[in-house]
Amino acid sequence: MRIRLPSLSPFSIRARLALVLAATALIIAVGLFLVFQHSFRSGFVAYLNDSQRASLLELAEVLSDQAPQISDWNKLLKSPAAWRRALESARDPGGRGSKTRGDKSRRGPGRLILLTPAGESVFGRPPPDTELMQVPVVVEKQLVAFIGAPVLQQVSHVADRVFLSSQVQLFLLWTLLAMLLAAAFAIPVASYLTRRLQSVSSAVQRLAARDYSVRLNPVINDELGLLAVHVDLCAETLSRYQSQQQRWLVDISHELRTPLSILQAEIEALIDGVRPLSIESLTSLQSEVLMLAGLVDSLHQVSMLEEKAQERVETMSVREFIGFLQTKLAGVGSGNDASELEVVLSLPPEGATEDRLVSLSLSQLEQIINNLWQNTRRYTDAPGHLQIELSLKPSHVVVEWMDSAPGLSSEQLPLVFDRLWRDEKSRNRALGGSGLGLAICKALVESAGGEIVAAHSPLGGLTIHIKLPLRRRQTAEPV
């Protein structure tokens, strides 16, 4: 079947990834620019205020040094003209030689204000609602005046504005350059990620076309690499399933061919008169038909259990489980072949059989025991030994079914639960079988949420390890 894929949107994932990366870089760059602009502007204003305070301190020190030249400070404070001359003398320290202070390149405060010690304005008027920066003028340890200037709230000087504007423009240029570099980087990154996604998409398309040989073999341990690992695992599982399905069809054909051939031969013999029509001939035909019906029923049961078409909600207590196991083993071991097998059953202590539930019905447990018993009876050399050990764990019950020789190789152990699998060489069957008994056991145990595995037996044969979960009676929830 050819799968029709929808056409791709013109706005591909590569374009979306590139756009997302570029947009992220743009948002970061714009945010950094705005933060820088605000931070640099406020920092520059703080720098100007610090520079202004330093100028005021230097001016106050010069005025203190010129105190001998000022005969009357009270007159100076009352005469703005005298204050202006003293200020010009302080700002022009020429002729003072070694007394020159400060950095001549520093611009002094632009708007000076002279205040009396009581805070009255003598020279200059402070702007309303403006914080005033004040520096004391001390002469011979006596406060004679305050000089001050308004605290700057923004850049007002032309030269300062030009400097601030140039710095902002320079950072804006670097921001634009960073955005271009981010966009140039986003495109190849998006292309790289898209190529990896396309390889996964191609692999999935090949799987949809039933080409299970595809493998991505990722070498990068990231999310896309994990996705590729899962695709490889899916391909391996589908390939194994396909092989099992093909072998299943071949095995079914083989199993059905023999009884059908016998039926065909006997019917032709009856039609040609080679064999007379009698009760014996009809009984022989009936036995072949019954064997075919049993095989078909077993196949149907395995398929239904593996697909979980039968929802089992029946449970039994641990006490009932142990009692039924004892009774059933006593019954199956009482046939003509009972003397050929020595059966040993080991049970947990009486106190350990507390009232908990196993998610199996009596009919399911009976079928599991029957299938295991038939498998042991057919494939164990006489005189054989069978040891069954049952143990209780906090959350599950464990059954160990161990028989004597012959055994299986390590390569054959995983195959014993395959449908229609039989080992004719190492475990010769005396009475034959359909090869579905252990497959049905596996399906029944797994439908109950349990586990079943095969291993080598300490008695020389095969061990079937069954683990079934326990549930509490009140809530029927797993322990």
What does this structure look like?
The chain has 479 residues and is α+β, with helices and mostly antiparallel strands. It has helices spanning 13-65, 73-78, 80-91, 158-208, 223-272, 279-306, 318-332, 362-379, 437-447; strands at 113-115, 121-123, 132-139, 142-150, 316-317, 341-346, 356-358, 384-392, 396-404, 451-456, 460-472.
Short structural summary:
By secondary structure, the protein is an alpha+beta fold. It has helices at 13-65, 73-78, 80-91, 158-208, 223-272, 279-306, 318-332, 362-379, 437-447; strands at residues 113-115, 121-123, 132-139, 142-150, 316-317, 341-346, 356-358, 384-392, 396-404, 451-456, 460-472.
What's the layout of helices and strands?
Elements: H1 13-65, H2 73-78, H3 80-91, E1 113-115, E2 121-123, E3 132-139, E4 142-150, H4 158-208, H5 223-272, H6 279-306, E5 316-317, H7 318-332, E6 341-346, E7 356-358, H8 362-379, E8 384-392, E9 396-404, H9 437-447, E10 451-456, E11 460-472
Parallel strand pairs: 6-8
Antiparallel strand pairs: 1-2, 1-4, 3-4, 5-7, 7-11, 8-9, 9-11, 10-11
Helix pairs in contact: 1-4, 4-5, 5-6, 6-9, 7-8, 8-9
